[in-house]
Write a structure and sequence with these properties.
single chain, about 220 residues, alpha/beta, Rossmann fold, 2 domains, 5-stranded mixed sheet, 9 helices, SSR_resolvase
């Protein structure tokens, strides 16, 4: 069994003030001594924001890569290791699955295996779900705003348009004319395959499924 510590400060200034790295390390050493543990290595994350997922941080990634079943990880506070409840929940589940214990000093100790772990997981799950909802709402709001302003939302560029230097959608005149032709042919009762064949003959290589999507999106937008 190996015992690892993890400390973090988000700025170099914090390294010397407030919750300094030295203070965090002493807290870990004191906790380990009180619980009969020998602290093997302390991973020190200097000048890294807590908003970055643990596994994407230099020292956080190294720590996770070293862990084996039966190992113990100590960290002074929840926000030293995680800032997002989503990241915390994902990593707690990961550590439990690996058979690794995580002790958070501010939460009373082992949050993966003792009596408080169920409470911690319940609270984090609730907060994480709220975070997911907020993220989804932000994405929907941003996409709606981009759509209203004719911004490119990513993915395949729709037929009839191109993306300009500022990320806006700009009409391609000849393709827009082709769209009107396809809609007119559909209104005349022509089959999608027939429309696709006629458009291909005019230099627009489209499948019948492509024609179907273009007409559907045009009618929806109209």
């Amino acid at each position: 069994m190996a015992v690892y510590g993890y400390t973090r400060v988000s700025t170099d200034r914090q390294a010397d003030e407030g919750e300094s790295l030295d203070v965090q390390r002493r807290q870990l050493e004191g906790y380990a001594l009180m619980h009969g543990m020998a602290l093997d290595t302390v991973y020190v994350e200097r000048g890294v924001s807590g908003s970055k997922p643990l596994g994407e941080r230099p020292e956080g990634g190294r720590l996770i890569s070293m862990l084996k079943a039966g190992d113990v990880v100590l960290t002074p506070k929840l926000d030293r290791m995680f800032r997002s409840s989503l990241d915390a929940l994902d990593n707690l589940n990961l550590l439990k699955g690996m058979g690794v214990s995580l002790h958070m000093l501010d939460l009373g100790g082992d949050v993966t295996g003792n009596g408080i772990s169920k409470l911690v997981f319940t609270i984090l799950s609730a907060v994480a779900e709220a975070e997911r909802d907020r993220i989804r709402e932000r994405i929907v709001t941003v996409k709606a705003d981009q759509r209203e302003r004719g911004r490119y939302l990513g993915g395949r560029i729709p037929f009839g348009w191109r993306v300009d230097e500022d990320g806006g959608l700009v009409e391609i005149a000849e393709q827009q004319a082709a769209i009107l032709t396809m809609v007119a042919m559909k209104n005349e009762g022509l089959a999608l395959r027939t429309i696709a064949e006629r458009m291909t003959a005019q230099g627009f290589k489209l499948s019948h499924e492509g024609v179907k999507k273009i007409i559907a999106s045009t009618l929806k937008a109209g």
